[in-house]
């Protein structure tokens, strides 16, 4: 039987994780935000959302609140950012990182936002929907709380685009077959479905931008790709232990010889709420 979403992605229910996994996930979110390729994705998203002084914005699935604080710097003292996440531990981590900017942190589910209709001028939702059962319900909620003419900016991964080079032929395929069915979110195509979802929801001026992230060292890739990260414990892999060890050893060898390569496309899709 297929594992449930919560067993395939630690990000769908972080509060239910062991202390060890919870620490790994928190560190991962912070490290991803610092990664140059994720920062490149975010620059595209900022250009798509175009946050402006005085606006009220929602960061849906805000994690440690890093983007919420970047958005707050853009909207300034006359604006506000509402940062919503359903994880108590991540919301607590966001509060400890707060910099005094105009961010209001709220616990909540992106599928049932505790906000009135037309409450915000725009929404940022980054690498969240792949972890949510009911992504279209979440999108409908984001549209409901956005005023007519406001913008939604969704950022998500297309795990089907993941590719490797430098490791022995065949080994990567065997590992990917395992991790695709057990280890990465069931909605592994979320990124490339975003345009269709926003068009179907009636948004106009829908602009899809694929950003292909490039990783040329194992250390760089491990920040974003869990199957390259040796900190992810063996029990999370659902692969025979020998296969995981062989894979990680081959990654080390490719890194040492300078031939390691990984690519992953993350989509930035924005659209305007009609009315
Ligand atoms: C990969 S993290 C991304 C966090 C943040 N957007 C960023 O880019 O750093 C996914 C986030 O989505 C949150 N999340 C997952 N499902 C959610 C839901 N149904 N409602 C609210 N937050 C959710 C998780 O708690 C986690 O903070």
Question: How is this structure best described in words?
Answer:
This protein has a seven-stranded mixed sheet, with helices on both faces. Helix 7 (171-182) packs across helix 10. It has 275 residues and is α/β, with parallel strands linked by helices. It has ten helices and seven strands. It has helices at 5-8, 19-34, 36-49, 66-75, 88-96, 135-144, 171-182, 190-200, 218-224, 241-257; strands at 56-60, 80-85, 103-107, 120-126, 146-165, 204-215, 261-272. It has one domain (5-272): 3-Layer(aba) Sandwich (Rossmann fold). The longest helix is centred in the C-terminal third of the chain and has 17 residues, at 241-257. Bound molecules: S-adenosylmethionine (SAM). S-adenosylmethionine binds at residues 11-12, 14, 29, 33, 61-63, 66-67, 85-87, 90, 109-111, 126-128, 131-132.
| CATH homologous superfamily assignment | Vaccinia Virus protein VP39
Instruction: Work out the number of β strands.
Output: 7
Q: Strand pairing plus helix content: what structural class? A: alpha/beta
Mean pLDDT across all residues, rounded?
92
Provide the spatial order of strands within the biggest beta sheet.
Answer: 3-2-1-4-5-7-6
Major sheet description: 7 strands, mixed
Helix-strand pattern: HHHEHEHEEHEHHEHHE
Q: Distance between the terminal alpha carbons, to the nearest Å?
A: 45 Å
For the record, the CATH class is Alpha Beta
């Amino acid at each position: 039987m297929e594992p449930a979403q919560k067993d395939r992605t630690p990000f769908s229910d972080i509060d239910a994780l062991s202390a060890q996994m919870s620490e790994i996930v928190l560190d991962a979110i912070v490290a991803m935000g610092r990664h140059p390729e994720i920062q490149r994705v975010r620059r595209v998203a900022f250009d798509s959302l175009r946050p402006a002084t005085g606006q009220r914005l929602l960061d849906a699935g805000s994690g440690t609140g890093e983007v919420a604080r970047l958005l707050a710097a853009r909207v300034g003292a006359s604006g506000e950012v509402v940062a919503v996440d359903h994880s108590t531990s991540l919301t607590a981590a966001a509060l400890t990182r707060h910099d005094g900017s105009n961010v209001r942190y709220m616990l909540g589910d992106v599928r049932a936002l505790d906000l009135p209709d037309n409450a915000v001028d725009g929404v940022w939702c980054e690498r969240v929907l792949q972890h949510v059962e009911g992504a279209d319900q979440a999108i409908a909620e984001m549209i409901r709380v956005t005023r007519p003419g406001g913008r939604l900016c969704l950022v998500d991964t297309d795990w089907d685009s993941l590719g490797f080079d430098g490791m022995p032929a065949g080994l990567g395929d065997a590992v990917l077959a395992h991790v695709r069915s057990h280890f990465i979110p069931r909605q592994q195509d979320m990124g490339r479905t975003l345009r269709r979802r926003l068009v179907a929801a009636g948004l106009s001026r829908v602009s899809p931008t694929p950003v292909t992230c490039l990783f040329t060292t194992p250390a760089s890739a491990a920040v974003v790709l869990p199957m390259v990260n040796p900190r992810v414990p063996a029990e999370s892999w659902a692969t025979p232990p020998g296969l995981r060890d062989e894979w990680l050893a081959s990654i080390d060898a490719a890194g040492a010889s300078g031939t390691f390569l990984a690519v992953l496309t993350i989509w930035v899709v924005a659209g305007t709420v009609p009315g």
